[in-house]
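Page 42, continued from yesterday. The earlier attempt failed because a stray header line got pasted into the input along with the sequence. Redoing it now with the clean sequence only.
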Amino acid sequence: MACAAAILIDGHREGALPRRIVAIALIAYMPGYLISIGTALFVPLRGTVVALVPMLQDQMLLGILNLGLLATPWERALRQLRESVLRDALTGAWNRAALKQRDALLADPASSLFLIDIDHFKSINDTFGHAAGDAVLIAFAGRIQAIAAERGGMFVRLGGDEFVMVAPTDDDQDARVLAEQLRPIADPSVSDLPPYSISIGLARVHAGETSLSPALARADQSLYRAKASGRDQVAA
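This time it went through. Structure tokens are written below.
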């Protein structure tokens, strides 16, 4: 029982609050059992009297255990609510607040930033309608999110049609290869979406940087060069 309580009370595991409530209840059971055993062995009382101790304990602690069970869906809903605050409502990508929350953790010299802009996105909305534009954003974000997850990175919608992916890369060449792999994602031949292309500004995080801000500024400059050079390309 003590081992089970120790496992449940681990605050780093999912569902920490319900686990802690159940662990407290399990720990609270132990004195009653010890009292019952001690009384049965060393105090000349009738067995029915000894049995009252765990019976009374059950009446008190079952309420705590039920509270732990009731807290499980509550905490799950709270966790989902917290995550929804950090997600973009349309695409499901992380948002700026989520990026800011993990800024220091992601600022690693082994990481690269891929600042992505959908080329001439306004013309997609004007020509095909906002529903088609939303469909492009959703489809594009879903594919890049899958790549980011596969690479152990993070994909964020900064706003509008601008996104950033932060992912670990071995070196400059690896970062460039990954950036080029992102571009065919926008190939309209794989779906019935309106035709579109993307421009990517690439920047590596430098040693000693404790924030993504410097790399994001460099990626922004790279993206500007990609757009100035005709779009539908990667600039680093």
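Notes: The first helix runs from residue 2 to 8.
Reminder to self: strip header lines before submitting.
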